Structures are given as C-alpha cells and as structure tokens.
Amino acid sequence: MIRDRIANIYEEIAAGPLNPVWISLVPREAAMARAQELENDPAAKEKPLYGVPFAIKDNTDLAGLPTTAGCPAFAYTPGCSATVVQKLVDAGAIAIGKTNLDQFATGLVGTRSPHGACASVFDSRYISGGSSSGSAVAVAKGLVSFALGTDTAGSGRVPAAFNGLIGLKPTRGLLSTRGVVPACRTLDCVSIFARTAEEARAVFQAARGFDPLDAFSRAPAPGQGAAPWVGGAFRFGVPAAGQLEFFGDDEARELYCEAVAEVERIGGQRVEIDFSIFRAAADLLYSGPWVAERLAAIAPFMESHTDQMDPVVRKIISGAARYKATEAFEAEYRLRELRRETEAEWARMDTLMLPTTGTIYTHEQIAADPIGLNTNLGYYTNFVNLLDLAAVAVPAGVRRTGLPFGISFIGPAFTDEALLWLADAFAQAGMPAPRPGCVLLAVVGAHLSGQPLNSQLTERAARLVRTCRTARDYRLYALGAKPGLVRDPDFEGPGIEVEVWAVPEDRFGGFVAAVPPPLGIGNAVLEDGEVVKCFLCEPYAIAGATEITRFGGWREYLG
C-alpha cells in the first residue's frame, strides 16, 4: 500500500531532527491524502511514477510550502508548483518536502546554510557536497526514492559522488526552470538524484518537455543528440595524465584508473584528449562575469538584507559588482572560441569520462578554506553548462577508508539518454570483484532501496552491488509489514527478487544484532549459484502466514 510506505517515511523522518536534511515538509495528512487519492484511482496505476515519494531542493517551488533558497529572509510561498515539480506530480509521484542547500545554490560543499551542514552518508566527518546537499542525502538515506536538485556548476553531481548516487545533470532547457530561484539563469539546470540510472531515466522522461512559459526551455531538433554508439563500441575521452588533478588524493587516482579499465572492458575505446580547453572554460565561471548573474538574480534582496546572508555567499555574490559590461562581452567571445576548439576534441570521442571530483573534504577542512577548496571541487564540473553539455555522475568505487568515489560521463547537448545508458552499463558491470573487507548481504524486504529500513545499510556505508533473484527453491511469505524468505528444496518457483549489498565487515555485527526474530541472517543461493548472506525466516513463523511467492518479490507484492 502506498499509504503504508508514506507513513513509514514520515515516521523515519520524525525519528530524527528535521535539519539539516530538510527545511520543510508537506504536512503528513496532505501526503497521506495524496496517497489515498492515487490508491482510489484505478487509472493512476498506469502512471510512470505511481506512488513514488520524492524530495525537492528548496530553491524550487512546491505550491503551499515556502521557498527559501536556504535564506529565511528571502522566503515566499508560491501559489503553484514549478513546472518540473508539477510534471512529476502529474506522473503519480508524491512530494514529501523541501531540502537543504548551500544558500542561493552558491557552493559545492553543502555547508553554507543556516539550517546546518549536511554530511556524507558514508562518514559524518565529511561534507555531503552541494549545493543540492539535502536532496542527495534524503535519497542516500532511503527517505525518498528520488530528489530534485539544481546544477549550475556541479551542484547535482558533486553531492551524488559524495553519497554514492546517480546524479543526472540534463541538457540545459530540457527540464523547465520556471519556478526555480535562479543562480545563473542562462546556465541553470534542474538535476535528478536517484539510486540507479534506470530510476533516473524514468524521472527524466516524466519531467522533461518544452515549456512555452520558460524563456530558456528548448527541445531537440530531429537527430540532435543522436548516439548511434549506444549498445556497441564507443570512444571515451580521458585527459592526458598531466592534466588530471586529485589534490593529493592517491586513492581517488587509483579508483579513476580502475574505472577507465572497466569502461574499456564494457566496450569503450580510450582516447586521450586535451583537457586544458575545458579547464579554460571552467575558469570563466567564477573568475569571470558569469558570477554577476548571481547578483542579478537577487540584487533587490541584497540591497537591504546582506546581513541576513551566509557570509561566504555574500562575499561571492557581492564581489560580482566589480565586473563591467564590456567584460561580460569579452568573456562571451572567449567562451565561443573555446567551444569551437572543443569541437575538434568531440570529433574524436563519443563521451568524456572524468572524475566527478578529484577528492573529498572534511567539514573542518572546508571551514578553514571555504572558497579555495570549493574551487577544487569544481575542477571537473564547472565547464559543463558553459559548454552546453549533458552529464551524469556515477558511483565508481570506495576508498579503503570507506569514502565513495565517482566518475562522470559527459556528452554533447541532448545525449542525456545515451549517457544514462552508459551509466547503467557501467553500474551493471560493477567494479572488479572480490570486494575486500566486505560481506555480501542479500536483502528482500524493508531494507531494499527506497524501503523504510534501507538507511540501516546506507548509514553503515554499505553499497548496492546488484539486483537479482534467488535460486528457484525459495518461497516468500507476508509477515505483516515485512516478508519472510524460506528455502524449500522440493519447490520450484520463479525465484525471489533481492538486492545484494556489500557491507563493511566491521559494521556487519552491529547490523545483525539489530535483526529481530523471527528473522535471522543465514546463507542463500542466488540464481547464478553464488552463495551470499541473506535475511531468512525461521520456519515456525510461516504457520498461518500468507504466501506471496507468486509476486516474485516484496516490491511487487506491495504494488
């Protein structure tokens, strides 16, 4: 039941503090009424996002909830939702609330907010990334299935990398920005956080579409963004070794090299490109007059409220006043020249594969150098919108410390679907096994992605390895709000859908200790014969329980 799922989400949110992940919530009664409305409408089941809960970055309008852009003094309550939000609601999704962000979407760190600093779900000492910090953490904690962010300089990709998520930065204009507080209006994109590329694709398809009321909305011409390489061999660009920068993070460098090898394994042909052209474009974003767009977006507000702004954000935006109109034109001319130079590089590659960031920082490090380290985080992201490219951030391994690493696939405008396919191909292939220091655990019910107890895995830095099925001699029973998996050697059925997670060995014992009876952790055989640890049910508990094996899995049973 959708209502049960929504109720569980609100209970889990209520179990902790609202901040720093959330700024405001849709009233529980309103969300439950929305769930009831969907359940009562037989036609609603055909909607592509039927009953899927989602979160919205609080610079994007949701009717009836304040939009603050991370600055309480700026708050206003919109009478209608942003175009992209309304499209998702029309597709059957259920909005849960508004999430935290770097104030006025200015930052890649997630620490510039009066509502507190979000942290990576892998290690609370480290930043979540920003500016779409709360949206990323809400998905990574399993509080919602997907979330909207925005991405001007990397705000949808950096938090994805720091929280082990897919982060889609669509082509500019493919998702309407009407109802979004501007950062740099000519560059802004609404971004999508999801656990898998397929989930991101479903959201993207529901959210996209030309908006005649948005002056920056656009649609591809026939053939624009064609990617005939999808499904076959493809060329992927990588910077020359001397142009890569990891800021002293040797493990990130190693993981990037491993990811390059993995992309070659799934059919990619590596092409060394001149990354200096892309870096030159990136330098224009904050070292040029585009920062003046941020001032243009909130100039009337700043005239009387500078003392109510985050000091770092205030310093960045107020500094834009020094630029002259002539400098804006000169920078535009330079950008056009750089775009032309990149054409020669794009002629040699189908996609560009980069680290999403060269490293990750602690909260303490960011506090000591908030602007300089923020600049480092944009090394591989700042140029993308300036050069009118699409990008998707993808998880690509974990450091020995347990911290995540990610790569980004970048392509020409309107290649969004192709990049999502590539992200999915990369994720399905997975990083090379075995996974030292981890226990592989199959989950079948409340610990699945998007389910109420999934955070018990993510807060232990567990990583989703794959979705598959058990061998065919397993039965599934409904035990109230949770399922029970039992092996029956004399039975042959469809196999039960499970997710296999890699759980750090030092955190596995505490996880097992929290498993309540009649469930326990034992060994299970997967469809390919692999044996992994798994949630199993003691046989006595299935007496009188309803068998739901025919559904093939807990999600299918819940509907």
Structural commentary:
With 559 residues, the protein is α+β, with helices and mostly antiparallel strands. The protein has 18 helices and 21 strands. The longest helix is centred in the middle third of the chain and has 22 residues, at 325-346. The protein is globular.
Annotate the secondary structure layout.
Elements: H1 2-14, E1 22-25, H2 28-40, E2 53-57, H3 83-90, E3 94-99, E4 119-120, E5 123-127, H4 133-140, E6 146-150, H5 158-162, E7 166-169, E8 190-194, H6 197-207, E9 234-239, H7 250-265, E10 268-273, H8 276-287, H9 291-305, H10 311-318, H11 325-346, E11 351-355, H12 363-368, H13 370-377, H14 383-386, E12 389-398, E13 404-412, H15 416-429, E14 438-443, H16 455-458, E15 463-469, E16 474-479, E17 482-487, E18 497-504, H17 505-513, E19 519-525, E20 531-537, E21 546-547, H18 554-558
Parallel strand pairs: 2-3, 2-6, 9-10, 9-11, 14-20
Antiparallel strand pairs: 1-3, 4-5, 6-8, 7-8, 7-12, 11-13, 12-13, 14-18, 15-18, 16-17, 16-21, 19-20
- Strand fraction equals 15-25%
Strand order of the largest sheet: 1-3-2-6-8-7-12-13-11-9-10
Query: Count of DSSP E strands?
Result: 21
Mean pLDDT: 94
Shape: globular
Number of helices: 18
Rounded to an integer, what's the Rg over CA atoms? 23 Å
Major beta sheet summary: 11 strands, mixed
Low-confidence stretches: 429-434
Derived structural class: alpha+beta
Helical percent range? 25-40%
Question: How far apart are the first and last residues' alpha carbons, in Å?
Answer: 7 Å
